[in-house]
Amino acid sequence: MNITIFGSGYVGLVTAACFADVGNDVLCVDVDAAKVARLKAGEVPIYEPGLTELVRKNAAEGRLAFTTDAAAGVAHGLYLFIAVGTPPNEDGSADLSHVLAVARTIGAHLSEYRVVVSKSTVPVGTADRVRETLRAALAERGAQVDFDVVSNPEFLKEGDAINDFNKPDRIIVGADHPSAARRMQMLYAPFNRNHDRVIVMDVRSAELTKYAANAMLATKISFMNELAGLAEHIGADIEKVRIGIGADPRIGYHFIYPGAGYGGSCFPKDVKALVRSAEEVGYEARVLKSVEAVNAHQKTVLYRKLKKHLGTLHGKTIAVWGLAFKPRTDDMREAPSRALIEAVWADGGCVRAYDPVAMNEARRLYGERSDFVLVDSPLAAAEDADALAVVTEWKVFHSPDFTRLKRLLKRPLIVDGRNLYDPAWLRGEGWTYDCVGRP
Predict the structure, then answer these.
(1) 266 tagged catalytic
(2) Helix (H) or strand (E) holding 317
(3) What CA–CA distance (Å, rounded) separates 59 from 57?
(4) Spatial distance between the Cα atoms of 127 and 133, rounded to a whole number of angstroms
(5) Residue 81 forms beta bridges with which residues?
(6) 173 falls in which pLDDT band (50, 70, 90)?
(7) Is 193 exposed, middle or buried (0-12, 13-18, 19+ CB in 10 A)?
(8) Nearest to 38 by CA among 55, 14, 23, 50
(9) Helix crossing, 51-60 with 33-40: angle to 10°?
(10) Run of H or E including 372
(11) Which phi-psi region, left, alpha or beta, contains residue 323 (left: φ > 0; alpha: ψ -120 to 50)?
(12) Cα–Cα distance measured from residue 96 to residue 114, given in angstroms and rounded to the nearest whole number
């Protein structure tokens, strides 16, 4: 198969590398010449375990290439994937300008049948707009060329994206014509050998499926955080509650961990976009609005706990363990760490922070500041700090040397947004330990 991917960001690169790795000839098109030059040199601009090795391997073996030449991309691939960003507008709606720009570009160069695949996370109805944009571009040229527009949303978890692509739970294909659906089934055959994971549906249902999946997961997180807040007030232990309800197979144990709120590039953006989509058709998404509100409040939980124990944070130093919104990624978009760090600064405090992979991203976001010190180890972050805040559940934080940690901190105070430690044991060792939803 000849495949073209428009966009070499997170989704585009993972999709390109995994398709190439099963023998396809893949060409990535990007408007950023500097990024294309880096990729040609084997430099992958994002952190994802295994991705750099996969890109370099397939590029070296001639199955993966990068270009800024959109015309070459349209000519190359029978399958033209649109995998560009859809950042939120100020009103929460998805910005489709990049998606539609790619559609116009494809229409400007299309000369024979192609399957145009929407891989980006987009609102319901976007495929219709892509189709209209393609037709308008062809009409401007006086050209008549057949094409199909297919929705094929991604379900990649940051930190485990390659495994998710290679061993998918499901492959959603939204197609209005059976022939286009069959072509997609052929394309995904190497990832579909154990049992049939392809679920074919209409385009609009496929578009909604992606938003619905992320909104459901976000809802589970906010629900558990709501329960955690209640548990703290009534003297219950949310971890015991979690185990009790997770034993019910209708609920299960996945995504019912309380914490410091969800972040990243997907859940916050997609929940907002789904709320906005509902408003545009005159429907009030009450549950989703509550999910958003609970999450916004939960992102302040560690700051509120610090204030409870320390009073003002003016002149105080807080050690922060974890900057990425979750482990195995350097993504700090909408991360709970950012809400905490910025609240500490607003209160006149300083931050000493460590993260295994997100330090460069933190430098890019915040630059050099006297009140923001990035250090090379978890214990170094704790030196002369007034408290430790655990924000991301990296494995390196799971079993620290508490004796050394207590010597380094000015006071034995931990606020834990991930419930990593045993409260009874820590209190027995002389710690003040304040976690989420536990008495």
Answers:
(1) yes
(2) strand 317-321
(3) 6
(4) 10
(5) 5, 117
(6) very high
(7) exposed
(8) 55
(9) 80
(10) strand 372-374
(11) alpha
(12) 21
CA distance to 76, 85, 127, 368, 424, per residue, from 70 (Å) = 10, 17, 20, 38, 61
348 neighbors 329 (Cβ within 8 angstroms): no
Strand partners, 79: 3, 115
Strands in 350-354's sheet, in edge-to-edge order, are 372-374, 350-354, 317-321, 387-390, 413-416, 432-434
Is residue 409 within 8 Å of 319, Cβ to Cβ? Answer: yes
18, 266, 350, 435: the catalytic one is 266
Within a 13 Å sphere around the CA of 22, how many CA atoms are in the beta-carbon half? 20
CB atoms within 10 A of CB 247: 10
Task: Give the tens place of pLDDT for each residue, 291-325.
Answer: 999 999 999 999 999 999 999 999 999 999 999 99
If phi > 0 it is left, if psi is from -120 to 50 it is alpha, else beta; for residue 74 that is alpha
Per-residue tokens: 228: 């955690």
Predicted pLDDT at 90: 86
Reported as a single tens digit per residue, the pLDDT across 224-247 is 999 999 999 999 999 999 999 999
**Closest-CA residue to 212 (of 298, 81, 121):** 121
DSSP code for 189: G
Q: What is the Cα 421 distance to its own chain's centre?
A: 26
